[in-house]
Design brief:
By secondary structure, this protein is mainly β. It has a single domain, classed as Deoxyuridine triphosphatase (dUTPase) (Deoxyuridine 5'-Triphosphate Nucleotidohydrolase, Chain A), CATH 2.70.40.10. Helices cover 12% and strands 33% of the residues. It is built from three helices and twelve strands. The strands form three sheets. Strands 1, 3, 4, 6, 8 and 10 form a six-stranded antiparallel β-sheet that branches. A four-stranded antiparallel β-sheet has the order 2-12-7-9. A two-stranded antiparallel ribbon has the order 5-11.
């Protein structure tokens, strides 16, 4: 069941859902608007011949920071990582669903490719997977409303919420756009085999 604006406000007031900083005006009928942070990770594909998911790829992206007056320019066909200005903490019985703002979608901006699901137990800022599907560059400004998150209650609290050591949560506590840590899946598999 998707939480209504009233229930979202109640959950925030009780401290079960934490959005920091929180502005009452961000609450929509069944979601909360989230703003764009000022840090981006741009891909430097000229540095590598291939993306190898089994290897750490620190040199694949470069962190770029803008001020509130200077836009981050996302060119046609370009992909970059962004981050929400707000950090978020979810209880063990609530999941989030991140979506783009429809007005920006109508301009060709996509805010997530596959990572729209926010697990129960999540704590941190959300990394955005930004793509420009338009044929003109898009100026993105720090603190502009860029996405919205809706919430659903689980049938029972999760036995192992995100952040539990059992499930190897790779992004808990992130506060900037975090590049892929998929390679850690292979490191944990090889350490299991060596035991």
């Amino acid at each position: 069941m998707v939480l209504s604006d009233k229930t979202i406000r109640d959950e925030i007031e009780k401290g079960r859902i934490v959005i920091d900083p929180f502005e009452e005006s961000a609450v929509q009928p069944a979601s909360v608007d989230l703003r764009l942070g000022n840090k981006f990770r741009v891909f430097r594909s000229h540095r590598l011949q291939v993306i190898d998911v089994k290897q750490p790829m620190e040199e694949l992206t470069e962190l770029v920071q803008v001020d509130e007056m200077t836009p981050f320019v996302l060119h046609p066909g370009e992909f970059a990582l962004g981050v929400t200005y707000e950090s978020m903490t979810l209880p063990d019985d609530v999941v989030g669903r991140l979506d783009g703002k429809s007005s920006l979608g109508r301009l060709g901006l996509v805010v997530h490719s596959t990572a729209g699901f926010v697990d129960p137990g999540w704590d941190g800022n959300l990394t955005l997977e930004l793509s420009n599907l338009a044929n003109l560059p898009i100026n993105l400004y720090a603190h502009m409303k860029v996405s919205q998150i809706s919430f659903m209650r689980l049938t029972t609290p999760a036995d192992t919420p995100y952040g539990s050591s059992k499930i190897g949560s790779k992004y808990q506590g992130q506060d900037e756009p975090t590049p892929s840590r998929y390679y850690l899946n292979y490191e944990s598999e090889s350490s299991k085999r060596s035991k």
